[in-house]
Amino acid sequence: MQHPVSDLDPFSKAYFDDPYPAQDRLREAGDAVWLSRYGVWATARFQHVRAMLFDWKTFCSSRGVGLSDFAKEAPWRPRSIVLEVDPPVHGRARGVLNRVLSPAAMKRLEARFAAAADTLVDELLERQHFDAIADLAEAYPLSVFPDALGMPRENRDYLLPYGNMVFNAFGPRNAFFDKAVENAAPVLDWLGKQMRRDALAPEGFGAEIHAAVDTGELTAEEAPLVVRSLLTAGVDTTVNGLGAALYCLARYPDQWQALRADPSLAKAAFEEAVRFESPVQTFFRTTTRDARIGEVEIQEGQKVLMFLGAANRDPRQWENPEIYDIRRKTIGHVGFGAGIHMCVGQMLARLEGEVVLAALARKVASIDIVGTPQRRYNNTLRGLSSLPVEIRAA
Length: 394
Ligand code: EJD
Prior knowledge:
By secondary structure, this protein is of the alpha+beta class. It is about 50% helix and about 15% strand. Helix 12 crosses helix 14 and helix 13 packs across helix 16 (about 345-365). The mean pLDDT is about 95.
């Protein structure tokens, strides 16, 4: 065997606690590495991750973007008709979501999202001591996203355990997955009902998706599944994106001061946090034919794990990648993916990130970590479950 082999478990507590040494080893071991524990290929280099994301004909999504190969095992839930499909099927739901989450749609939400961020930051300034994850990174998306979708007020926090389960399910059936399933079991019935047309307000992302049935773009069976995609991917992702930015700004006071001095850097500070922490750490593709990653030959029908987080810290691509620098040119990072599946909600995520960081930059003088940050263990998402902080008014 010519190719590099690693017995790394990239879905283990030890790895999640400090993934960077293992990511360096994988990146340096070769263009692609065989992960013997799972019988899958992996690449941690920016150039190859990016190339794979663009080459959907060779590295498909329709056999699932998790460890499980849909050609060998039935999907554990009805497959997503946007995430777990290839062209031409992919384009239908994607086209609808492109419109629902378009720049014009974001523009209409901007004032409301900014006002909600200002209000929340004012409340937190009254308290001074709070948990930057529960009380800000989770509270903010839960205060604006379900409204934008048109969901009722009750039980919107159920979206967190549901998302946590789905993102764990892209990895192996390990203890993190089992725990997430246990936590989410009570909310599954509720979630199934939230996807329906009659459960959603007459205005909002949900209603706009269902309206695509009237224009013939989606069938009545497909529309609830497209709503499910937003319910799944719209909260936990932005929670961890915001959490990443808050954790960075609390740890690196020079960057916090740079943001305070120029609140127009809020958008850049969020983007750099997405590169630096890569809230979405990994995703799989499956080869549709014999393929090549650099020097390494891969046969048809193989799962390949893309380390987005490692790619975003590849020293071949980034200068001092381990430094959080809000003035860096972050363009081209793969924290939102790339190619045809690149995050359809990225402008919504950036809007949430920008308005929260801008509100903090204008109103807050200091953010101090006053307790031990706790990691949230998830097979796909990287983030904290707790970040105790104290803030002081500007
Ligand atoms: C996702 C990485 C779905 C779905 C779509 C996208 C994600 C998850 C689920 C967000 C992946 O269609 O169910 S970041």
